[in-house]
Predict the structure.
Amino acid sequence: MSTPGGPGEGPGEVERARSGRQDSGKNNGPLPFDPIERAAELWALRWGESTSMLAVTSLMRAHQLVLAEVDSIVKPYGLTFARYEALVLLTFSRTGSLPLSKIGERLQVHPTSVTNIIDRLAKSGLVLRKPNPADGRGILAEITEDGRVVVEKATADLTAREFGLGALGTDLHHSLFATLRELRLAAGDFQAG
């Protein structure tokens, strides 16, 4: 039986095509078709139309592409995007330091992830780990002068390359933010106000 993808092509072929991606999030060249659109067509034939499957699959792929791009931009500075975000957060604080618990809360990541991020930044000399005088058991992360220099250079590079979203214009950036904000709000990510 022929499906919209061509003779003998079924969900397995689509999945094999999609799973052949390199870890960097980039493939070996453009496919001659949109595999997400093709998967949606095949999905509809088997289970009925699902716009949410189409959207979430696109979102997950876009996440892979954008994360690979921003990580490649900050990699020359010995950073990942997660480490870059932590440095930016520290530059936003009045004192250049924050408790690890506050970093986790603001970045919305697990405490173990924050510890790993800060440990790696400390090993690179970009932050210092200090006892928190307000909490005998807590730790503060404080950005160093080297950390400030690195965050400024990485920010200039990210901004120049539009954080990996150069293919979209300003209007689409705002639209994408508004759409994803609704999803985050509905999930209880933050309180509207």
Confidence is low (pLDDT under 50) at residues 1-24. The longest strand covers residues 135-143. Residues 185 and 191 are 7 Å apart (CA to CA). The beta strands are 2-3, 6-7, 97-99, 127-132, 135-143.
